[in-house]
Design a protein that fits this description.
This protein has about 160 residues and is an alpha+beta fold. The chain is about 25% helix and about 35% strand. Strands 1, 2, 3, 4, 5, 6 and 7 form a seven-stranded antiparallel beta sheet that branches. The chain is elongated.
Length: about 160
């Protein structure tokens, strides 16, 4: 796959995540299960997204982490590696604050348990299913699918 194709797959991943920003996240050095989190995306913030959480959340300690994403239509899947760090910039915390976020914190924006985490992205593996008519027909009839008909799989930096 050439770099143009990789860029297109990466762009489709961001569009799918914007439509349904829910990911499962876990710290690499933890034996805990992954947690569902709502990723806050910003098209001007390359290489990162954020989560609001509480200081007692199992992700609060930060560190090397993985996020798993499945698009709403189940046509794109991604495994994203990176590092979780506390976001200390109050302008960023305020920028994404909303009534939906406030509903999770009894003390609102000034709740002492409020913590914003920044997921600094390293790279991702992205799988995109074959949306062609030929690929769908082969799957429905049990015919052998050739590797080039199975869809796209890329490894890319973010």
């Amino acid at each position: 796959m050439d770099n143009g194709d990789v860029a297109q797959v990466r762009e489709r991943m961001w569009k799918k995540m914007a439509a349904s920003p829910f990911v499962m996240v876990r710290l690499d050095d933890s034996f805990d299960h992954a947690l569902p989190m709502t990723a806050i995306l910003d098209e001007d913030a390359n290489g990162k997204f954020w989560f609001y959480t509480s200081r007692d959340n199992r992700l609060a300690s930060g560190g090397s982490a993985m996020a798993q994403f499945a698009s709403k239509d189940h046509k794109l899947f991604a495994c994203i590696s990176g590092r979780i760090v506390p976001e200390t910039d109050t302008a960023v915390i305020d920028r994404y604050w909303s009534p939906m976020v406030e509903a999770w914190f009894d003390g609102g924006r000034n709740d002492p348990s409020l913590l914003m985490l920044r997921f600094e992205l390293n790279d991702a593996e992205i799988w995109e299913g074959d949306e062609s008519l030929t690929g769908k027909l082969k799957m429905l009839t049990g015919m052998k699918i050739k590797p080039e008909e199975a869809g796209r799989h890329v490894e890319t930096t973010l």
